[in-house]
Each structure stands twice: as structure tokens, then as C-alpha cells.
Amino acid sequence: MKNSTPKPSKTAEILCGMKVSTSGYKDKSRRDLPETIITNGAIVCREVACLEVHLDSKMKKKRFSENELTFTVKGSFEETQQVSMGRDSCSPLPDPTFFHYAKYKQPSLDVVLTKKRRLPSFHRKFDLHLKVKKCQEDLDVRLGFDLCAQEQDFICKRKKVVAAALKDILQLEEDLQEDEVPVVAIMTTGGGTRALTAMYAHLLSVQELNVLDCVSYITGLSGTTWTMSNLYEDPDWSQKDLKETLKDVRKHVLKNKFLSCFAPDRLKYYLKELCQREQEGHQICFTDLWGLIIENMLHEKEDFHKLTDQQQALNQGQNPLPIYLSLNVKDKISDQDFREWVEFTPYEVGFPKYGAFIRAEDFGSEFFMGCLMKKIPESRICFLEDDETLFPARPNELDTRVVCPTDSFSSIFRDVVMLRPAASEIPNFLKGFQMNNNYLESEFSKWKDCELDSQPNHLTVATDHLILIDTAFAFATSYPPLMRPERKVDVILHFNYSSGSQTQVPDDQETPHLKECYIVGDKESSETPIVIFFPLVNDTFRYYKAPGVKRSPSEMAEGDVDVASTRGPYYINNLSYSEEDFDKLVNLSYYNIQNNKDLIVQALRAAVERKKQHTKEQLQKPPSRDDTRVPDREGTKHLADCPELGNMK
Question: Basic and acidic residues composition bias: which ranges (predicted)?
């Protein structure tokens, strides 16, 4: 920080035994002085100043009443702070008090002296020494719609792995050049234990086809985030045989969840972890408890892994990059009227909508105008896993009865079991920012049916907290991160794990008989990705136990897998499966990929041809004038040169 010239000290003389309010310091910095701002076209960061308050006192008596001073700077990050004064002349002076505020607001410092204990009144004189500092210029929030440097570096490394895999699968004679390598992604949907189980089977199947090494991204929500977070504990998971991993998952899916999750020792563990989390500075909510329950379901022991630990699985480009998805909503407003995608990677957490991102390890910390103000320890991965409602809607559907003492902690469990643990409340890292007056003309991502997107005062920059919910509550899809033009995704393997309708179209328009695989997209135009859609259906698996291998009469029962019924063995509230149901779902999911290998290869070949054609066209295209222009310092302007700010206050 750079110190400016100290402001003149303000002396307040107050008699103890009185309660007074003084409006002392006021920042009188000239509003017409140049101000450096940073903007990405959607949101604006203004200069932040720091007011440092030193408190001194002069006593006319050795003994006096114990007092407390309250300082308030409205609109600052700290807002209000209290300072206690000792009762004698030997008491140490309190540490300086700091207030961070937007420089342009010209705030005032309000001081209130209150007595804490009634004693004989004596004169006491307080001196306030005030000093203004200029805060750091480098932001802790990245403003920009491009990919972060770490992800760009990862893609360069991953393309080498993908190029080698494609050469083998497509039996190419020559190596692919970097700009000829398509970006392939796996997109998964929610579905609780059904999604967790089927995704493992799908990944095993694409691994055995050597297609997994062609994939650069995997996106997930709800149940599939459990699969992803579990896999990425191993830095080399995609290079190992997933059959062994599936065996371990099988043990966890078969066990009785309620007996293991609500045992007395587990309840004590949950309480200890929640208390520790609160001491670290986190805000405790239902989803924290749910995260601990998920941890117990999948591990049966404490899982120390964090989101940033998954960077080790990416440092050589050895695995696809995982992207987890959540929704930010508003309290008392339907998520159909307002919702915003929030994406999580091992590198960053942020809003593609606003072009604002923070480091993954800083998620949960407190920010103001793009600056990290209060660092909170990074959460363990279990506290980030989505809070999909998996508990039965009616208590009498439980296989066992949960009995615990009638105290405040047991009431939390009753609420979790009986109610949906809907949302997490997180400090808003966009706090303090302003919307650019022309934000709708920028790369800001707007919902067509969301009126609040056109009302800047109602957007996230105006709130103190984010309210995050499981994306599946509103949309059972993790497509949005793959639609960002910066990622340039060419092929999407869509693995659907939803129950009921597989196409999300009205019942009267639903295709009566869905196939195992569909290819959607223009095989010649590179403007849109090619989608390979795998609905969760039981089609030819009824009659074939492997591609081209028919079932014998005695094996027909193994092909009877009910994935269509919303109340079948794989319904969303079912946390545990029988051995038979688990094996059937795994075998069906594995088979559907294997049986459509040719369609997958066909789509990958088309993507490579599109990339080659696009590269050829770019080489033949004459350079434009914009290609040779030297860019200015990105995102930085002076107030006098920023008509987009208008008269924002």
C-alpha cells in the first residue's frame, strides 16, 4: 500500500457518563481528480481507499469509567467497528482500526462514545489520528471472459495426449498438428446414486475404447460430482484400470447408508467438524452437514482432499479437466425468474456471466471491490459437493429409524431428513463492484426470460452473499461451461442420467422409442459442437449381453433393467442398491457405449476433418487490420475517458 499525506487529526472531547455522536472525518478528495478504474465491459472496479484510525486518550484522573467507542463508515467493507478503552492510564492503547471504502463515495466517519459501566464521572479526552492510504492496485478477482492462464496451459499439454489417442483410434497416417486437434468433452447430468453408478460404467467403457484419452473436459452436477471428486483424488486415475475403482464403489453403494451415516460416533464427528468449520470463519448451513454425510457414504473416513488438490491430476495434462456446476439464486425469488451459473475448476471459481473469477483456494473468503479482505481456509471437497435432495419425501420410506437425543443438534438432522437442504450461503466475491452502464452490450450472458438481468441494481454485485443451490433443482444439465466460446469445444459426449423423460420435451412430443445413441450437429461447420447423445435407455441390451452376442433364454432376466420408471429400483431417493440392481445398471451403461463405438468414432473423425478445413480456411484468409493493432492495457481506463460509468453513485 502507498501512504498518502495524513489527514489532520480530529480531537473529540467527551465527558464520560454522556452518550454523544460526532461526525468527524470526511474524505474530501476532489471528485474531478483522475481515478483509475478497471472494467471488462460488464462490471466495473473503482479505486479503494483505506482509512486508518489511531485512537489516543488523555486522562485527567487515574481512574475513570470503562468505555467503548463505535466507529462507523457507511458503505465501507467493515461498516462498523467497536474499540474498548481500558480503565486506567496503564491500559495499552487499542490497535489501529481500518476502513476500506470506494474512494469516489466521499464517506464520513461517525464516532459514538458509550459508557459500559456507571462510575463517578471524570473528564477524558480522546484524540483521533486519521490517515488515508491508497490500496493495492492488483486485484484478487480476475476480470475477463478468457480462460485463466493455468487452463490455457493445461489445454496445450492435453492436446498432445488427445492427438496421440486420435491417431490410434482413427488410424491416421500422420500426426495431428495442434490446431487440428478437436476439443472433446464429456457432459453429465444429475441423478443421485443412479448418476454416480452409471457414470463410472460409462467412463470404464470409453476408457476401454481409448476414447477417454481424447477427452479434455468433464462437466458434472449433483450425483456426478461425487464420481468426479472421488476419481480426482488419484492424480493418474484415467491411466489406471477403472474396473478396480468400480469394485470399491460397489461396496459403498450396496451398504446401508442410514445405519452407517447416523451411528452415534458419526453424529459426534459431524458436530466436531461443524464446530471447527465455524471457528475457521465459515458460515454453517444444512449443506455442510449434508456434505459430511456424503463423505461418510463414499469414504467411511475423513476425506482431507480439497478442490485445489485436483491440480495435481492436471499438471501434465494426464486427465481431463473437471468442471463442477452450481446455481446462484436469490432469496424469495424463484430460480425460474433469476439464476446464474457458477463454475468450479481446480484453478478458479467464478461467473462466466460477469467475466469474474477468483482462485479456487479463495472461495468462501471475503472480498471487497476485487480485493481479498478476509482470508478463510479453503474448504474440504465434501463441503463443495452439491446438496441434491436424496432423502425420501415421506419418512415412512426409511429402511431404518433414526433415534437421537432431543437437543439442538438432533433437530438439525430432523430438518435435513424431513426438508430439502436447499442452499449454501457464501460471501459474495463480487461485493462492491458496479455494473457497467453498457453491460448488456458486452459479453455479459443474459437469460432471455430473466427480467432481473436488465435491472443492474438487482444483480449479484449488489448483494453481500451468494445463495448456491444444486443445478439439478432447476436444470439437470452441465452444458453451460462447454458453451463458452473461449473453450472452443468441438465434440460433446452427453451422458444422460435423468429418470423419466430423456429429452425434456412435452409428453405428447416424446419419441416413443429412444435409441441408445444419437449424433446431433453439423459435421461440416465448426460453429457448433457435435453432440453424441446417450440417453439412459434399455434398448438392445434386453436381447444382447455384448455387442453382437445374443442372450440365451436363461440370460434374458439379466437384460431386464428398469431405468424408465421414476419409482423403480433407481429412483432418485434410493441411496443403496442391491447387488443385482447395481450390476444391471453398470452392465447396461457399459454396453450402450460399447455397442455404439462406430458412431463415436464417426463423430470424432468428422471433428478432425472440420478442424483441418477450418485451419486451411484461416491460412487462406488475408489478415485484417485488427490483427496487427497493438492492444492497450486490457481493462484499465481513466474516469475522464469512461462515458460508460455515467453518473453511477
Answer: 611-641
526 is annotated as an active-site residue: no
Which position among 222, 229, 238, 379 bears the catalytic label? 222
Quick one: pLDDT band at residue 308, thresholds 50, 70, 90? very high
- Check 470, 499, 526, 581 and give the catalytic one: 470
CATH 3.40.1090.10 domain range(s) in the chain: 143-506+513-620
Q: Which CATH superfamily is domain 143-506+513-620 in?
A: Cytosolic phospholipase A2 catalytic domain (3.40.1090.10)
H or E segment and range at residue 70: strand 67-72
Cα 209 from Cα 347, distance rounded (Å): 29
Dist. CA 314–CA 236, nearest whole Å: 9
Residue pair 490/530 in contact (Cβ under 8 Å)? The answer is yes
pLDDT exceeds 80 at position 377: yes
Distance CA 374, CA 369 (A): 13
Q: Where in the chain is the domain with CATH 2.60.120.1540?
A: 2-138
The C-alpha cell 430438518 sits at 415
| Amino acid (one-letter) located at 59 | M
| β-bridge mates for residue 11, sequence order | 127
Predicted confidence (pLDDT) at residue 34 exceeds the cutoff of 50 = yes
For the question of residue 507 being annotated catalytic, the response is no
Residue 469 has pLDDT above 60, yes or no: yes
pLDDT(113) > 90: no
